[in-house]
Amino acid sequence: xxxxxxxxxxxxxxxxxxxxxxxxxxxxxxxxxxxxxxxxxxxxxxxxxxxxxxxxxxxxxxxxxxxxxxxxxxxxxxxxxxxxxxxxxxxx
Length: 92
Description:
It is a single chain. This protein is mainly β. Helices cover about 5% and strands about 45% of the residues. The chain contains one helix and eight strands, in the order αββββββββ. The strands form two sheets. The chain has a four-stranded antiparallel β-sheet with strand order 1-2-3-4, with no helix packed on it. Strand 1 and strand 2 form a beta hairpin. It is globular and about 30 Å long. The relative contact order is 0.19.
């Protein structure tokens, strides 16, 4: 496990067909291959509304809903690309 992942305060995780997805309290989402290699790193700087991942829920194969601090995000993992949709729904 990398030092970056170790310091990110792991909060939850979910196993998908091709990935182990880990939600953190401080650094977003890490998606690891079955072999433990980092495949995707999603964070507030590029895709997520914020870094605090409170829950993960599997949608369909390799797709997840993320419950974040004050928002929901939908992520679809694909070998060749990643699809990200930000619903216009926030909680105050």
